Amino acid sequence: MVALYCDARQFAAHPVQSVVRNASLEAHDLVTRECTVFYLALEAGDTLKMVSQELTEAILRRNRRLPVVIHSFNHLSDQPLPVADAQRLYQDLPDALRNAGITEVDSTTFGWIYAIELHDVGKPGAKGRMVKRNSLGTA
């Protein structure tokens, strides 16, 4: 798993085009204020348990109780999780985070290209990168 995160004053994502064969036909606009956006690339061997645990720990460690937005950046992965597995993990991830105590979670629709508008907070520590090695030794 590789994730970039950014605390945003405002985040907007507007679906433009489906790029995965079995992607949902119902992609939605997402507009929110004061949130942390996680751009997430899943790697071969990643599991829902590992990804949700890493994100939960990162969110709690940062001590930021902002709403969380998950956006797929799987196309940037060196060894991507197979599409069907990645799609299922992205669909299940918001509920896993809620079950871990992260109450405000939203996500863009996996398999879609979005036009994104981001206004970040521009403060030290408001942006970062997370890399978690899985059991296969990939990021």
TrEMBL record:
Species assigned in the record: Sulfobacillus thermotolerans
Pfam families reported for this sequence: tRNA-Thr_ED
Protein's recorded name: Threonyl-tRNA synthetase editing domain-containing protein
Superkingdom of source: Bacteria
Domain Threonyl-tRNA synthetase editing: 1-126
Stored InterPro entries: DTD-like_sf, Threonyl-tRNA_syn_edit_dom_arc
